[in-house]
Amino acid sequence: MKKSILLFSSALFLSFAAHAQTSYGIKAGMNLAKLSNVDNSMEDYQKNNLSFYLTGFADIPVASQFSIQPGISLQGKGEKYSIDETIANAKVDGSARLNILSIEIPVNAVYWIPAGPGKVYVGAGPYIGFNIDAKLKTDGDVTLEIIGDGDKDELDLEIGKDKDIHVVDAGMNFLAGYKLNNGFLINAGYGLGLTKILTDGDKRSSRVFSLGIGYQF
């Protein structure tokens, strides 16, 4: 009975995918990342952490102007702090950067609007991410407790339960862009993390604005 259900489900999925004329694409570009819930004393020094993303996706039409896009994505996230001012008659100049590399699995619902030689699209959906690498760097006069002293120090952070960084980073994606009839894509997106990044009780979560280009075959 279970085999029959599995075979029927597989056949139904393959039939749907063939009928839906599934297409595939790739997108890449830059990320501007921050973490939310920053302490008030640090807000003035928080900057965008410049990183990258690379995404492969499938586009499965389910209506004339509506499709579902599952995918897999390599995402650079994190945060950055930079200071260059005089405090208590002393010049303070330096930066601290948290770089996080994550593998994400997004599933977005996308709506297409014909416009000129292509289509405008907007979409949203959930994602689940798995942090695979994290590094903390300081440069100049900036110091952090877990680093020790500054001066271009770098520390590999541990990922996992009771470590420095949580493994899972889940949240919501929001995307918009334009697709030319030849398949060329212009993309913009925003990732809203809903889970905590740090394991020390800190409530900061990921925020990522992205810009890039791509191609849908």
Automatic annotation (TrEMBL):
Pfam families in UniProt: OMP_b-brl_2
Signal peptide span: 1-20
UniProt keywords, alphabetically: Signal
Domain Outer membrane protein beta-barrel: 21-198
InterPro entries assigned to the protein according to its UniProt record, in alphabetical order: Beta-barrel_OMP_2 (IPR025665)
Identification of the protein by name: Outer membrane protein beta-barrel domain-containing protein
Annotated source species: Sphingobacterium lactis
Taxonomic lineage from the root: Bacteria, Pseudomonadati, Bacteroidota, Sphingobacteriia, Sphingobacteriales
